[in-house]
Specification:
alpha+beta, 282 residues, 23% helix, 12 strands, 12-stranded mixed sheet, disordered C terminus, single chain, outer membrane lipoprotein receptor (LolB), chain A, globular, 5 helices
């Protein structure tokens, strides 16, 4: 098998060399026509705007997301963990997110009046009153509790503003396939991160893949999401967004970010701490 691969690659290389030789020969000949100007690339910001406008026009929708997240340990080594999400939205005041993964299993409910976060592994939940719209609820959840719901920014009415804030460079990469779907491949730079998005080309500009690189953190960890199973006409009953405490579960309180920081244990001094063995995970 390795020999076949080597011959195939060698043949491709020879073909490219011959084609390059033809190009050089033509360039030196007489009567060569001037090359036509290359067509202008699509505007990446316009494609983002079309996507966010389209998503905002959907009264209700559901989709799945397969995500992976890098975690850095031991001075730059990386481990990758998975989290599968199920997301359902009904505008203006209903959102449900289920997450099943390697590190956590959680359910998020927003019913227009309250937000509930349920930890399945510990069988505990917390409830907090929220404003009567998805946008306002997500903003309050982040401000009061430091809570960010994965991919919720895509669904907010100000998604374009949130996604394009502080962009220093935008690039249209090309048209590429994501799991059989032709997509516009875009890349953006911001102060602390570089991110790429693949948006379905056609009448339904749905996001199909998202890749975020934290370029200033040790190891440049990445977060990746494949967005699948889009349904723009789901039948979403009120009960889908209503939390019912499971048997034996216990209610706890959300902690604001300041209290969370105080609650974290202080690092031990070097003399008392146990040194990690080589290859030990965090």
């Amino acid at each position: 098998m390795s020999g076949k691969k080597l011959r195939i690659f060698s043949g491709a290389f020879i073909l490219l060399v011959i084609m390059a030789g033809w190009a050089v020969g033509d360039a030196g000949g007489q009567g060569t026509k001037a090359a036509a100007p290359a067509p202008a690339s699509p505007d990446p910001l316009k494609i983002i705007q079309d996507m966010t406008t389209f998503l905002q026009s959907q009264g209700q929708l559901s989709f799945r997301a397969e995500t992976t997240d890098d975690q850095v340990y031991l001075g730059g080594k990386k481990l990758q963990y998975s989290l599968d999400l199920e997301i359902a939205l009904r505008r203006p005041d209903k959102l449900r997110v289920n997450g099943q993964g390697d590190l956590q299993n959680q359910e998020f409910f927003y019913d227009g009046m309250t937000m509930t976060l349920y930890h399945q592994d510990q069988n505990v939940y917390a409830i907090a009153p929220m404003p009567p719209t998805i946008d306002a609820a997500m903003a309050k959840a982040h401000q009061d509790f430091g809570l960010q719901v994965a991919l919720a920014d895509l669904l907010c009415s100000n998604a374009y503003e949130l996604m394009t804030r502080h962009i220093t460079h935008a690039l249209y990469v090309g048209r590429h396939m994501i799991r059989g779907v032709p997509c516009h491949h875009l890349a953006f730079d911001q102060d602390n991160m570089q991110w790429q998005i693949w948006i379905e080309a056609g009448e339904k500009p749905l996001p199909r893949k998202l890749l975020i690189t934290q370029k200033k953190l040790l190891g440049s960890p990445q977060w990746t999401a494949y967005l699948t199973d889009w349904n723009l006409t789901p039948q979403l009953a009120d009960s889908r967004f209503t939390f019912t405490p499971p048997s034996g579960s216990h209610q706890i309180e959300f902690l604001p970010p300041a209290k969370i920081a105080k609650a974290k244990p202080k690092p031990k001094t070097k003399s008392k701490s146990r040194s990690k063995k080589q290859g030990e995970q965090p």
